[in-house]
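Incident log, structure service

09:12 report received: a user says their structure output differs between two submissions of the same chain.
09:20 pulled the input from the user's history:
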Amino acid sequence: MGKVVGGMTLSLDGFVSDPHGDVSRLYPDLGELRNTEMLQEEIRTTGAVVMGRNSYYMGDPDSYLDDYEFQVPIFVLTHHVPEKKPKQTKTLTVTFVTEGVARAVAEAKAAAGDKNVILIGASTNQQCINAGLCDELHIGIMPVLLGDGLRLFEHIDAARLALEKIRVFESGARTDIWFRVVR
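09:34 re-ran on a clean worker, output below:
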């Protein structure tokens, strides 16, 4: 069975976006990033995605068909299902889940089969970490200081989270560190 993999790219001072929600300074290498060994491995091993509503609406949902690296079923955590459904294919489908993070992860695991479920979004990661649903964290670190903004590890019960480093990737300015969640 696949794993539930959380994580995001952080600034050196621990932010996943600036105070206005801008992430561009964390991803100046997005074109190059798609070709890295690290991301290619994530793409190959991912069978489904769970993301929050805010992450889902960061761009045009219809653009996922052409531009999104994970062409797999996407499960969006939300309180309200939008009236307009995005464009979908046989491999990239979008399901809106209103019953909470545990339900979204369960549906994603069923869809992913033996592959991994990737978590997208700070709140989604926080909820899964706190609920004990996360098996690994993949953290990208960019050498920039944002000074303020949204933190990934805010609202986390740190006393309940133990990590073991399992891999390190370096590509350009980025350093990606993968951790196993110790149970």
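09:41 both user submissions now match this output. Likely a transient worker issue. Closing.
09:42 reviewer note: The chain has a mean pLDDT of 92. The first helix runs from residue 30 to 33.
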